[in-house]
Amino acid sequence: SSDVCSSDLRIFRMSEAKQAIFNIEKTYVRDLSLEVPNAPHVYLESATPEVQIQLQSQAGVVGENVYECVVTVTVTAKSGDKTIFLVEVKQAGIFHIENVPDSDMEPILSIACPNILFPYAREVVSDAVNRAGFPPVILAPVNFEAVYQQRMAEMQAREQFILTVCANGYGKLSSAYEYRRTGQIGRASCR
């Protein structure tokens, strides 16, 4: 009987120590849009346009341990109030992520996955602008870790709390962000 218990303990410890899995299953352009609203006249002008760049990333669950991350890059070139060109690419990837603690999933989906996808998005933007007849736009690398940390700091500055009153009459303040993320409000402290 003691042999069964010690072997059960070994099996439990082995299953506890499963190795993390992170695989890129597929990268693809989910959406690509190019507009040259003032063609052909824009090609006859020699003004140097002002280029504005917007960047966004989002991630979602596709299936069990399968996630999609999408990096959206929008580049707008204007001369005065006239749009020279606008290109938007949604570069996506499907990732298989397993045996990773829940607390690490958001940083992986907000930092690691966009870091993998951004070079592809850069290439698509540059190629699309070049094919439209303009000099290619070369996007600078992005530090997604700094972007993530800035977003977390902004969320923390606007933090909202939910007051939970338990059956025993005690109250607990819980983060509204944590509630939205997990769907739970500190149940353990209500006992």
Q: Give the overall average pLDDT.
A: 85
Q: Give Rg in angstroms.
A: 24 Å
N-to-C SSE string, H for helix and E for strand? HEEEEHHEEH
Q: Biggest sheet, in brief?
A: 4 strands, antiparallel
| Distance N to C terminus | 36 Å
Our count of helices gives 4
Structure summarized in a few sentences:
The chain is an alpha+beta fold and 191 residues long. The chain contains four helices and six strands.
Which SSEs are present, and which pair or pack?
Blueprint: H1 2-16, E1 21-35, E2 50-63, E3 66-79, E4 82-98, H2 102-131, H3 144-157, E5 161-165, E6 171-175, H4 176-182
Antiparallel strand pairs: 1-4, 2-3, 3-4, 5-6
Can you walk through the features of this model?
The structure is a single chain. The chain is an alpha+beta fold and 191 residues long. It is 35% helix and 37% strand. It is built from four helices and six strands. The strands form two sheets. It has a four-stranded antiparallel beta sheet with strand order 1-4-3-2. A hairpin with a 5-residue loop joins strand 5 and strand 6 (171-175). The chain starts with a helix and ends in a 9-residue tail after the last helix. Mean pLDDT is 85; it is low at 185-189.
Relevant terms:
single chain, 35% helix, two-stranded antiparallel sheet, 4 helices, alpha+beta, 191 residues, 6 strands, disordered C terminus, four-stranded antiparallel sheet
